[in-house]
Structure formats: C-alpha cells, structure tokens
Design goal:
240 residues, mainly alpha
Length: 240
C-alpha cells in the first residue's frame, strides 16, 4: 500500500490528538491554567532571591529550575497523549519523518507546554533592567532556550518510541533531575555546577551581553542556542 502524502499523514495524526483531548474532563483546562499561575507565582517569589544576589548565579538557577519544569511538562504530554497515538498507528503506512514532525507540532501546540513556555518568557522579561533592548533580549533568548529543550527532548523521545520501547525511564530521569535541581538550589555555590549546562550559560551570557550594550555578542549566543535545535530537527527527520 502506497504511503499517503506527508501533509495528510500529519493531519490524520493531529486529528487523532484533537479527538483524544476532547475526551478529557472539563477540569483539564482549569488544571493547565493553574499550572501557568503556579509558574508565575514561583518566578515572582524567586525574583526576591535574585534581587538579593548579584551576578549570573541567580539567573542561572532560575533558568535551570524552569528548564526542568519545562522538561517535565513535555515528558508528561508525550507519555500521557502522544505515545499512545504513536503505538496505535504503528501499523499504518505513515513515514517516520511525518511521525517526528507530528511530535514536534503536537508539543509546540499543546496548551500545557505553551503555558509553561509563555509564563517563563514573561517572568524572564520582567527580571532585570526595564529597557526595550534588555526586555527583548530576555524574551528572545528564553524562547530560544525553550525551543532547544523542546526540539532536543522531543527528538530523544521519538528515537526511543521508534525502537518500540516505553519512555518511562526518560520520565524517571527527568524526575531525578528535578530533585537534583531542588537539592542544588539549597547549596551555597550553584553557579559553578550550573555553568556546566552550556545552553543555560549561553542564555544568561546573552542576556548580560544585551544589558551591557553588546548586541552582536548577544546575537552570537542566540545563534548558539538556535544551532542545536536546527541540527536536532535535521537528524530527527532522517531517522525515518
């Protein structure tokens, strides 16, 4: 049986996802809204800590915690909704590239992910100098960091789903990572540890470069964040 066009395949998979969402209880939307409000309250509380500290360490910690929260949201969406659709459509003549594109589009359009992503951008924009360039740089770099996390993690989840193995170990690893960040936040010196996470360091360095009047350097860090996302997309589409 010949495979149908990629656009039709994606439309069929996205339609299945829409039908699955309609089966959720009415409290599902309220839970997503509560998720966004809780994230905003956390960021507002964390801003107190940032006001009392100087340098890059507080911002590094904020992005580390938000990144783990974002990872947990993506993992929850994949395991709760997307993995089941992929497993039930394994017998259909759908190209692997189309399945990968479906995962990316479904994650980018999911309300829970958009709420966490959006509130993180809003919180990051509100921290620091209130000049237009500083606010714009914080929003753009936070967006690119979220895009990198979403694309790379989605690619890893698809690679595991493609091998017909459950993604539960990956979700468990994310949970352990969250616990680790919670432990690190109680430590006295977090900047040296978190600086190992290169994308976090790129994001914070880009923000500080924009705030100190170095737009070209900030743009370079933005390019650094964008490059791995593009590489993961190219690799994911070639998995087949």
């Amino acid at each position: 049986m010949a495979q149908v066009e990629g656009r039709t395949e994606r439309a069929l998979l996205l339609s299945a996802l829409t039908l699955r969402r309609r089966s959720h209880p009415a409290t599902w939307g309220v839970g997503i809204a509560a998720l966004g409000v809780a994230n905003l309250f956390f960021c507002a509380y964390f801003e107190r800590f940032m006001d009392a500290e100087s340098g890059q360490a507080p911002l590094l910690l904020l992005f580390a915690v938000e990144s783990c929260f974002f990872l947990a949201t993506i993992a929850g969406v994949f395991v709760g909704e997307l993995e089941g659709i992929l497993q039930k459509t394994t017998t259909l003549p759908v190209a692997g590239r189309t399945r990968y594109e479906f995962i990316l589009l479904a994650h980018m359009r999911h309300p829970a992910i958009l709420v966490v992503w959006g509130t993180a951008m809003l919180a990051a924009s509100a921290v620091g100098p209130a000049t237009f360039a500083a606010i714009l740089s914080r929003a753009v770099l936070t967006f690119l960091l979220g895009l990198l996390i979403l694309v790379c993690f989605s690619t890893g989840l698809y690679a595991r789903a493609r091998s017909r193995r459950t993604s539960a170990p990956i979700v468990a690893a994310v949970a352990l990572l969250l616990l680790g960040i919670g432990f690190i936040s109680a430590a006295a010196s977090t900047s040296h540890f978190l600086a190992v996470a290169v994308p976090l360091q790129w994001t914070v360095s880009g923000i500080f470069a924009a705030q100190t009047g170095e737009p070209l350097r900030a743009g370079l860090f933005a390019f650094y964040l964008l490059l791995p996302s593009v590489a993961c997309i190219i690799w994911g589409r070639r998995l087949g």
